[in-house]
Amino acid sequence: METIGSLAKRLGLGRSTLMHYERLGLLSPSGRTEGGYRLYGEADLRRLERIRTFREAGLPLQTIRELLDRPDPEGLDRALEEQLRALNEEQRRVRRRQARVCSLLSREAGGEAPSPKDWVDLFARAGLSREDAVLWHRELERSFPELHHQILAALGYSESDIILRRKGGIPMDATPLATHVFFEAFRNLPRLNPGSRETTLRGLALAGSLPQAPEILELGCGEGTVAMLLAEATGGTVTALDLHQHYLDTLTERARARGLEDRIRPVQGDVAALPFPDHSFDLVWGEGIVFVLGMERALAEWRRLLRPGGWLALSEAFLAEGPLPEEVRTFWERVYPQALSAEENAALFRAAGYRNVGHFVQPDGDWWEPYYTPLGKRLPALREKYQEEPEALGVLAGIQEEIDLRRRWPETYGYVFVTGQV
């Protein structure tokens, strides 16, 4: 048996705290000395340790008392789940405040917008390490992707940098070298995301009938592989939009070589701010581009571009339902925390009011022959070229990690192709 002072000291608590717990009925002494001093035994110690554990988790004292007095595993689960929801909401409030402070700081700076380095320095002065800042960006991207996009723009990043860093996992304070290496790795690949000629044609068939010589918009066209296939398969005209002019220059050359220059219209633009009037197209097509906005926002914003009876066709990354291997879960939480299941993506089409919704999971081969296989073959030469550049090697290591993950866990995630009609 030990006294209140001894017990408090052992657990690093104040004597007044234990007396407060006694007044609330949380903890009572097992006995008293002849002089009336409180004495506590091993059972009291174990109870107090549980009280401290629950308090560290943020549970209210009344809830702790109920859990200890009426042991109920389900009740404990409910209490912890409720506390987790409360903590998540508090994190969201903190992130909103952080975002607001960043926005105000940017606005108050006046004149030239602060550079990304200025913001990195500001985070450091505020006590945030680089790892803390990366985590902050990651959590904001997970919970509020649109707000994160707006904040990055307010911080002085170009639209090109924002999209590239969100897709490529490049740190927000990376130098232009990281951007250059990323583009160098993907230059002149058959595809810039998983896909194939067969998958594109299957998606086109799923979209149903189109008018003769349809007007088509392809979003995120890259070097034009899909744009030219759509033009040839439909006899229509394809407006091919991409953010990066060097992709469009390559597309122009390739279209001319195939005699399609009159039916391919390259446009430099941002999928988040499309410059086209409403009801301009019979078919809006996007393979691997939804991540820029997220599926719900894409379905809402791109719908206006479709003529009555027009079709939207999108391919999107998905996660298998059920528990995921820790390695897979961690990777996707980092690169695309909004990823859903295949069925959930199709359900979002229906919830957004699209009709005749159809979908299919793309075959595993779409990841390899046109995409990861040629990409993986060029990595050794790039590692050799940039062996003295740690930042470049970090970008290449991230690409290799993605390839290796797919090889180990092909059944846990993939791409789903979804079409719907307005």
From TrEMBL:
InterPro entries (alphabetical): DNA-bd_dom_put_sf (IPR009061), MerR-type_HTH_dom (IPR000551), MerR_fam (IPR047057), Methyltransf_25 (IPR041698), SAM-dependent_MTases_sf (IPR029063)
Keyword Transcription in annotation: yes
Domain HTH merR-type: 1-70
SMART domains per record: HTH_MERR
Stretch forming the signal peptide: none
Keyword Transmembrane: no
Molecular-function GO terms, alphabetical: DNA binding; DNA-binding transcription factor activity
Xref: PANTHER family: MERR-FAMILY TRANSCRIPTIONAL REGULATOR (PTHR30204:SF69), REDOX-CYCLING DRUG-SENSING TRANSCRIPTIONAL ACTIVATOR SOXR (PTHR30204)
Protein name stated in the entry: Transcriptional regulator, MerR family
Native source organism of the sequence: Aminomonas paucivorans DSM 12260
